[in-house]
Automatic annotation (TrEMBL):
It comes from Macrostomum lignano. Residues 669-681 have a biased composition (Low complexity). The keyword Transmembrane helix does not apply. Residues 364-378 form the Orn/Lys/Arg decarboxylases family 1 pyridoxal-P attachment site domain. GO terms for molecular function: carboxy-lyase activity. Its cofactor is pyridoxal 5'-phosphate. This is OKR_DC_1 domain-containing protein. Keywords: Pyridoxal phosphate. Residues 657-668 have a biased composition (Basic and acidic residues). Residues 650-692 are annotated as: Disordered. It comes from the Eukaryota. InterPro entries: Orn/Lys/Arg_deCO2ase_major_dom, Orn_Lys_Arg_decarboxylase-I, PyrdxlP-dep_Trfase, PyrdxlP-dep_Trfase_major. Gene3D superfamilies: Orn/Lys/Arg decarboxylase, C-terminal domain, Type I PLP-dependent aspartate aminotransferase-like (Major domain). The lineage of its organism: Eukaryota, Metazoa, Spiralia, Lophotrochozoa, Platyhelminthes.
Length: 692
């Protein structure tokens, strides 16, 4: 493959033609004479507005040089104003200001804003300026870990260390497994190294190339500190909990958070306060937690230590985060945002503000999900002014493998570099392709891309929720195909694999790797499927409502680590087992779809919960249920024995709370007795509704 050389444009802004002309020609001749690995070429603008047009339109723009003579608000102020405007639109651009030496005071002010450096107007050393601009790009586009990894592989050292395949030497001449060598390629195997190579630094104690890579990532994403992680956001969520939460500390969390968050509750022994997310039942899609619910939870739990929300949600719904973060901070609550699906947002204004820009203290991002890194490659960004670095490191190291996969770390370096150097351009293209795809799918008259108005549950309509336009939820209900059939036919006949589906929608994710030809193939498939539409069956499904959270009898950790006993979900007559009523669950029980935990460890089981699970498992649509035990081929729920419940160390916490609240019998053992006598509602009354 031919090597592609980058093109980098540098914009020089001045309304002083007498200064601008020699500056442009001096810089152009320096770029021709000197080494120019980034392909820097100079263009000009005469006004701030003209400069902004270029900043918005030119995806190859990397540098802006602003002359202080820019007309406008008085000497230098127009330059400062423009620097701020550019910075808030594209923070990744490098900004330089041209001043006279006696304007140092203003420089200080500028530098503290958005500016990376300045040039002296009285000393027009264009050769020197060019060298500085080129060095700036070298610094920004550096991939210190990836470079060191490549350099090490090129040195061709003999391996007398792990991993056992020894750079692929165990594979390459084997009649049995050399195909694996061919399949993954020599470089990946040679680069699969271990901590025995000191020049590659240590992920668990970075002081060299990994530390530098982390600093570059922090600058790129706008964090005080960034950590590279090779175990996915599933792990980084847990690391943050263990750093912030002592046993029994309150955590406010969306009940629909990713399961790693629920696992983190068990591991940290936190006391969860679940917030119900909104739900669009028509399409089976969960939305954000209503602002009113969050504010109420903050008010009722001022002693909470942290709040965690998912932004954007899997389906692309974005909170209006700033006021939420402010309300939490006012109460002294730290804010953690799971941005697993929104890592690219910093690099195009259409997606901002990011969670960090809204003031979040901790942000976890699966760089691998939406940018260019290998699966499991994630980052944690920290902006907490009270960050306990030592504690975080201890927790990070508790979860990290001592043999991290180096290709993942290199891919984080590369993913960050790409986002920084061409994220704006690629995302701009993605947005255009997304708009085109949306228009074409809608023009079939059969399929329809849902917009925010369709997806927003009523309870969050006035919450300022936005939709990420790179996540397309397509309503397929008029096609006569079920979602499963549609996914299958797209896969078998049109070679297309989507992200996920509900009973009436299909979700397609666009990203920096979306190409025009993929868009054409998808449109072609949708047009053909629209033509082949079937008679729409009379029945349409609405999502079964997940039963409301009942209450906790003890902390999730106390229940999870007990042996418990297993009770069948169904009785001998195939009805929901009444013996489960009032018992305390030991596991997290969760059905896909919708993916919200029906039960968490420590939660009291009620008749609607048993009926819901029974109906799901007996229904004719396949659902995956996690967390149930299998006893002789029958589903069972692991519950605490009465002795275990009474001995649970956190039990008193809940009994005390009840007494304080004055509804003492709600979580008392007597209530458990009473619940056992409650009638079990019929399965049909609580689960999936079918409409004619
Ligand atoms: C909201 C959310 N958070 C965290 C994760 C886990 O991320 P990872 O796959 O990087 O472990 C996921 C995975 O799907 C997710 O949807």
């Amino acid at each position: 493959m031919p090597s592609l050389k980058p093109v980098s444009r540098a914009l020089v802004v001045s309304n002083d033609a007498a200064w601008l002309e020699p500056a442009l020609s001096g810089l152009a001749s320096a770029s021709a004479r000197l080494d120019n690995p980034f392909g820097i070429a100079f263009v000009s603008a005469h006004t701030g507005d003209h400069a902004m047009q270029t900043v918005k339109a030119d995806g190859d723009l990397q540098l802006v040089v602003i002359d202080k003579s820019l007309a406008g608000l008085g000497a230098g102020q127009a330059a400062l104003d423009l620097a701020n405007r550019i910075n808030s639109w594209r923070p990744e651009l490098s900004l330089y200001v041209v001043l006279s030496d006696d304007e140092r005071a203003m420089v200080e002010e500028l530098v503290s804003h958005a500016v990376d450096g300045y040039f002296d107007r009285d000393e027009p050393d264009y050769h020197g300026w060019f060298r500085i601009l080129s060095a700036e790009l070298a610094e920004k586009s550096a991939t210190p870990f990836y470079d060191a990894l490549q350099a090490y592989v090129k040195m061709a050292k003999d391996s007398w260390h792990s991993p056992g395949h020894s750079g692929g030497d165990s594979l390459k001449n084997s009649p049995w497994v050399s195909d694996f060598y061919e399949f993954v390629g020599e470089n990946l195997l040679r680069a699969d190294l271990s901590v025995s190579v000191p020049m590659l630094d240590s992920l668990l104690h970075p002081t060299g190339v990994i530390a530098t890579a982390q600093n570059l990532a922090a600058t790129a994403f706008g964090a005080r500190k960034t950590y590279l992680a090779t175990n996915g956001t599933s792990t980084t969520n847990k690391i943050i909990f263990q750093t912030l939460l002592a046993p029994g500390d309150k955590l406010l969390l969306d009940r629909n958070c990713h399961k790693s968050v629920h696992h983190g509750v068990i591991l940290s022994d936190a006391r969860p306060i679940y917030l119900d997310s909104s739900v669009c039942r028509e399409f089976g899609i969960f939305g954000p937690v209503p602002k009113a619910t969050i504010y109420r939870a903050i008010k009722e739990n001022p002693d909470a230590k942290a709040l965690i929300l998912t932004c954007c949600t899997y389906d692309g719904m974005l909170y209006d985060l700033k006021p939420i973060v402010e309300a939490a901070h006012k109460a002294g609550i730290k804010v953690i945002i799971d941005e697993a699906w929104y890592a690219f947002a910093r690099f195009h204004p259409a997606f901002r503000p990011t969670a960090l820009e809204c003031g979040a203290d901790y942000v976890t991002q699966s760089i691998h999900k939406t940018l260019t890194s290998f699966s499991q490659a994630s980052m944690v960004h920290v902006n907490d002014p009270e960050f306990d670095e030592h504690l975080f490191r201890e927790n990070f190291n508790m979860y990290a493998s001592t043999s991290p996969q180096y290709a993942l770390i290199a891919s984080l370096d590369v993913g960050r570099k790409q986002a920084m150097m061409e994220g704006y351009k690629l995302l701009d293209r993605t947005l255009k392709l997304g708009a085109e795809l949306r228009q074409k799918i809608n023009s079939t008259g059969v399929f329809r891309v849902l917009d925010i108005g369709d997806l927003l549950p009523d309870e969050v309509r006035n919450d300022g929720v936005r939709l990420d336009p790179t996540k397309l939820t397509v309503d397929i209900s008029k096609s006569g195909y079920s979602a499963d059939e549609m996914e299958q036919v797209l896969f078998d006949k049109y070679n297309i694999q989507g992200e996920k589906s509900t009973f009436s929608t299909l979700t397609l994710l666009l990203g920096v790797g979306t190409t025009r030809s993929k868009v054409s193939r998808l449109c072609d498939a949708m047009f053909r499927l629209a033509k082949d539409r079937r008679r729409v069956p009379k029945q349409s499904y609405r999502m079964a409502e997940v039963p409301h959270f009942s209450w906790l009898a003890c902390l999730p950790r106390s229940a999870f680590y007990e042996s418990g006993e297993c009770l069948y979900l169904l009785d001998d007559d195939g009805r929901p087992n009444e013996a489960l009523t009032g018992r305390v669950c030991c596991d997290q029980v969760l059905a896909y779809p919708p993916g919200i935990p029906v039960l968490v460890p420590g939660q009291v089981i009620t008749p609607p919960i048993t009926s819901y699970l029974a109906k799901l498992l007996k229904g004719n649509k396949p659902v995956e249920v996690h967390g149930l035990a299998d006893i002789d081929g029958e589903y069972a729920v692991r519950v605490l024995t009465q002795e275990e419940l009474e001995a649970a160390p956190s039990r008193s916490l809940f009994l005390q709370d009840d007494e304080k609240a004055g509804d003492g019998d709600r979580q008392q053992p007597q209530k458990v007795q009473q619940l056992e006598q409650l009638p079990v509602p019929s399965a049909d009354s609580v689960t999936e509704e079918v409409h004619d």
